[in-house]
Design goal:
This protein has about 375 residues and is mainly beta. It has helices at about 25-30, 75-80, 95-100, 125-130, 165-170, 225-230, 245, and strands at about 15, 20-25, 45, 60-65, 70, 85-90, 115-125, 145-150, 160-165, 180-185, 185, 195-200, 210-220, 260-265, 270, 275-280, 290-295, 305, 305-310, 320-330, 340-350, 375-380. The protein has two domains: about 15-245, Sulfite Oxidase, Chain A, domain 2; about 260-380, Immunoglobulin-like, CATH 2.60.40.650. It contains seven helices and 22 strands. The model has no long low-confidence stretch (mean pLDDT about 95). It binds ligand MTE and molybdenum atom (MO). The site of molybdenum atom (MO) has 6 residues, from loops. One of its GO terms (biological process) is sulfur compound metabolic process. Keywords: Metal-binding, Molybdenum, Oxidoreductase. Its cofactor is Mo-molybdopterin.
Length: about 375
């Protein structure tokens, strides 16, 4: 595979892997706006970026449907109602580096910024599947299986990237799964799936297949490596010698869990009062973030942060992220001293009262996925 025809990228990205390209924005840049500018939106590729001619492009729909379809880009844009939603995408590998620091895991290292928030324009997957006369669940129509056009994924013997979601999610009128051709009001760019990608909000980024080639309605999950082997939380006794035994027994990840992180200040900063903590909070399944707690003493005592922006537009669920802010004006233990070291912590709560686990050791897993433990930042406060 050749990486000679990759698109232009923001020089400010933190590059975690060059080819295939995997990059995240700097944490302070990430929380500068509710909508992430497209050039700052994290990129997670498994192969070279395909260069697709939009006029020759077609989307195929087959499997358990009464009317298999081949649709042009123009068909997608004109035959189906256009909807725009705000949704964040988050890689299941977000915060993997921190999990690996506790005990080594395998996978591309990610800091705290392999998630971003955008507006997406496209048609509903539901409308396309209704047009294709999708069979009932009783006939075995259980999974919507997606294949991309990015041939050359080394993990899967050079096959393109693929994965699947349930038909229940795909057909849920409040599920808001889109076939998106616009991102932040513009034609979606090459890194993010031009000319058409799935946006499956509320579930791990891995299911939002880019450069969408084909949708098959199937009784079974995708056969792809990325559905059957990867993106699973194995229990902590699973290692590289016995993992094969657990591949089929361990469910593939769908909905995201609850997550938050402090993006400003950076770890080990030295700061004067007053200063402001800024971060993000998200949950899976479109569950609203009800509350973010901030601690200045490593989690002994907590206070509520101020929440910013929950613009859910036409959706009934909260697919977008929530930013939070907390300003520290006084610190009693600083009195009479030149400086003091403190441990900042955040943890979010969603409308089901889910909250984040304290320790990474309790959720450690072989692939380093879904690290959502309390996020801590050590800083020094100067007088
Ligand atoms: N789709 C294809 N075709 N190829 C890929 O490598 N990566 C997936 C998903 N869809 C991927 C893909 C993963 S793991 C994530 S987290 C998201 O795309 C990232 O989307 P983004 O690059 O637009 O941020
Ligand atoms: Mo991902």
């Amino acid at each position: 595979v050749s990486f000679e025809n990759e698109p232009y990228r923001d020089p400010d990205f933190i590059i975690n892997h060059k080819a295939p390209f995997n990059a995240e924005p700097k944490p302070d840049v990430l929380v500068q706006s509710f909508i992430t500018p497209t050039e700052k939106f994290y990129v997670r590729n498994h192969a070279p970026v395909p260069d697709i001619c939009p006029t020759a492009y077609t989307l195929k729909i087959d499997g358990l449907v009464g009317q298999p379809l081949t649709l042009s880009l123009n068909d997608i844009k004109t035959k189906f109602e256009k909807v725009t939603i705000t949704a964040h995408l988050q890689c299941a590998g977000n915060r993997r580096t921190a999990m690996s620091e506790y005990k080594k895991v395998k996978g591309v290292g990610w800091g705290i910024a392999s998630l971003s928030n955008a507006t997406w324009g496209g048609c509903r997957l539901r409308d396309v599947l209704l047009h294709a006369k999708i069979f009932s669940k009783e006939s075995g129509a259980n999974h919507a299986v997606f294949w991309g056009l990015d041939f050359g994924c080394p993990e899967d013997n050079g096959k393109p990237y693929g994965s699947s979601i349930t038909v229940e999610k795909a057909m849920d009128i409040d599920g808001d799964v889109l076939l998106a051709y616009e991102m932040n009001g513009e034609t979606i760019n090459r890194d993010h799936g031009f000319p058409l990608r799935v946006v499956a909000p509320g579930i791990i980024g891995a299911r939002s297949v880019k450069w969408l080639d084909k949708i098959t309605i199937s009784p079974h999950e995708s056969e792809s490596f990325f559905q059957r082997r990867d993106y699973k939380i194995f229990h902590n006794g699973v290692d590289w010698n016995n993992v094969e035994k657990y591949w089929d027994k361990t469910p593939s990840l769908q909905e995201l869990s609850i997550q938050s992180a402090i993006c400003v200040p950076a770890p080990n900063s030295a700061l004067y009062l007053p200063f402001t903590i800024t971060g993000y909070a998200t949950s899976g399944g479109g569950r609203k973030i009800e509350r973010v707690d901030v601690s200045l003493d490593g989690g002994e005592t907590w206070d509520y942060a101020e929440l910013l922006g929950e613009d859910k537009g036409v959706c009934t669920k909260y697919w977008g992220w929530t930013l939070f802010r907390y300003t520290i004006t006084k610190l009693p233990q600083l009195e009479g001293k030149d400086s003091t070291k403190i441990k900042l912590v955040c943890r979010a709560w969603d409308l089901s009262s889910n909250t984040q686990p304290k320790d990474v050791k309790d959720i450690w897993n072989l692939r380093g996925v879904m690290n959502n433990c309390w996020h801590t930042v050590d800083v020094t406060i100067l007088n």
